[in-house]
Amino acid sequence: MDCKIASTTRRSSGFTLVEVLIASAVASMVMGVVATTVVDVAYALKAIESYNDYESESQIALDRLSRDIRQSYRVDTGNATALSLVSTNSSRIVYNYNASSKELVRTENGVTQTLLHNCSELQFAYFQRNPLTAVYDQFPTGNPLTTKLVEVSWHCVRPQRNITTTSSDFQSAKIVIRKE
Question: Residue-wise pLDDT tens for the chain (180 aa)?
């Protein structure tokens, strides 16, 4: 009679401890990469949103300034950081840049409105009419009454909250006084 010894140990269908540890380590690394990517994307979206808000504020300020200059009769007074216009209804519109508060403020009939915030620099320049036919250069003016073109340029910077980057906006425009 043949006697066969049957094995009493059976292989279970589960994972060994080493396999579980390796799988956990790989899963942890994958989750870390995914979490880092999600955080980076969230910061990027926040920076883009902030830039869009800043760009919108800057464009609204430029539109308002352009409309006032184009529709004014003349420049009353002006320097590098302030502009005073005589409007169509004979009221004065004053734009004033305050370097300490970094704001551009518009005042008309005693009503003050802040158009720009966090402006690190802003400058107005004044030019007269073209004195020669077919010459399209602008010539600086020393007298506000001869001003026909106003150039404005600004640079605004806003730090992002909880992010190490900043939103920055540069604007520059040459605006012609259409009246007169």
Answer: 666 666 566 666 788 989 999 999 999 999 999 999 999 888 888 877 777 777 888 899 999 999 999 989 889 988 999 999 998 787 899 999 999 999 999 999 889 999 988 888 999 999 886 655 666 667 777 777 788 889 999 988 876 666 556 667 788 888 888 875
Residue 91 belongs to what domain range?
17-176
- The answer as to whether 8 is a domain residue is no
**DSSP 8-state symbol, 20:** H
Query: Residue 44 falls within a domain, yes or no?
Result: yes
Domain count, the chain: 1
Edge-to-edge strands, sheet with 119-128: 139-140, 119-128, 147-159, 166-176
Structural domain includes residue 64: yes
Which residues lie below 8 Å from residue 167, measured CB to CB, with a gap of 6+? 47, 50, 51, 54, 157, 158, 160
Q: Are 149 and 137 in contact (CB under 8 A)?
A: no
- Nearest to 68, CA basis, from 129, 115, 102: 115
CA distance 100 to 163: 25
Whether residue 2 is contained in a domain is answered as no
